[in-house]
Input
Amino acid sequence: MAAACGLAAALVAAGGVAGHAATASAAARPGLRPIWQIPRHDLLRAGGVTGGGTVPLGAFELPRGSAQGPARWYTVRLRAVLWLARGTGDCILSAATDGATAAQIEIQTHPRSATVSSLGWIQGRRRLVPRAGRVSLDFRNYLQVRGVKGGANPFTLTLEVLHGRCLERIRLLRGSGIATTRARPDELRFLVPTTVLTATKGRALTIPYELVRRGGWPDRGATVTLSVPQEWRIDGSASQRFSRLGYGRAGSFRVTPSTTGTSLVGLRAARLYNEPNATIQVRVEPAKSWVLTRGLSLLLSASLIVGAAALTLASRRAKAAERRAAATDEPAGV
Amino acid sequence: MRIKKRHLYLVAAVCALLAGLSLLPGNVIGASTTSLRTLGFGYGDAIYNYDFENQAVDATHVDWAISLLFYNNANVNKVKGILEGTYWLFGSKENAYLNDTGSWQWDQDGGEKTEYPTCLGSDAHYRVYAPSGTDEFYNPSFGYYLFGSTHHDHHELCDDWYDNSEGTESDIANRMSSRGYYTRYDYAWFYNAQFETQGNHHWNNDGYATYIEVR
Output
């Protein structure tokens, strides 16, 4: 299994539209202990970045000698409501401690839609497509190594407007701040084939995977979910549940592709620690008919045999004709 | 009979021309290296130290050496936005093979260049790479970060040749520095020093990458 699998996306991969529900219980995640919250009066100052710029939002104090990992890890939490602007715009909302960015949320607005995407080591990659003009965020991530030191660690919020206008208003919510955990950043990761899998349209294909766990966070098990192109059939359940992971679990899914060309299938273990996911490329070739596969080769063999027979026959006839001609040309015996 | 012979010569000439043309792209684009290797950046993140012509790890079809690292609060759109006053025209796409915490994946970028391709002109050209799903890596050592390769294009529509990866690296370092971004020119050894000529591909890379902190 290990040989068949290569290392794969633990934290980022294409797709993955995460809902708000996944973040709602973030505060209750095991092992995260809040140590500092952005003061209430500073929360109000966050609104000042709506048009772009940076605002300081207080600072958290740490004892001398504090550092990021390996025993204690510091994380950031950003809870906010964003009112999206109408029109086209591209902005990056970021938060930093000691100038080291640990939260980066890209907001892209279009006349009739918007996307809010983020990448972090607790929730993985997230991409929200808000239906309304308002979106709630609950973002968590491990701080940078440079963002943790003994003494005062200033916390800043920045909105960078790349073009257009993205936000009408920002409201930072209570709970935003710093928490610690003993769990190492990359708790779970998938091992999946790194080479392109080849399949035949209409024939079953096995998708192998291995979910590996470091063991820093409590072993709560995981549900691995498979996503395939819309027309494909999953033979069996699209989810596999492991009540315990230990140091890792292996599994596989069987799918039947119904479209040709190169497609991506996705695996994810959602709502768990760093929410690992992985993508596997599958190249599906059209099913070849019996005539094309065996029929043609049989036809070719038959043609060769017939050809060879015809050649033999022709050469025999030619020899016979030669012999006859030689016989008629022979002078009569004395 | 004479007409037929003339036709044959004509066909042969066209075939020779087509064969020559079919060989030309390999000569123009193809470049090779003996220094291809992976570089680790902690937490399972890694890259190859060259970008590639195709989506295949092949030392005989590399394009340019990776010579830039944007870190802390970098993002593909953001970096391109910072440099867009000078680097404004998209270029042809090349490929980088990246490992984001255990997952090797391809990213493709056309980058940005300073001028339209012409018969007699030259332009500076860079490309930036990060996992395509996010347009950035993250890890606690580098924050949000991405990589880039650099070079110069000359006479692209006529007798084209390509060179000066150090010149474009230095130009980008200067521009970022002048905009107030903390820049460490030729800061880290990326094991991709190369000085030679391969067809119209002129290597002059010192093997050191420039680190630029994006706020």
User: Anything to note?
Assistant: The two ends of chain B are 77 Å apart (CA to CA). The helical segments of chain B are 2-29, 76-83, 165-178. Chain B touches chain A through 29 residues (CB under 8 Å). Chain B has three helices and 16 strands.
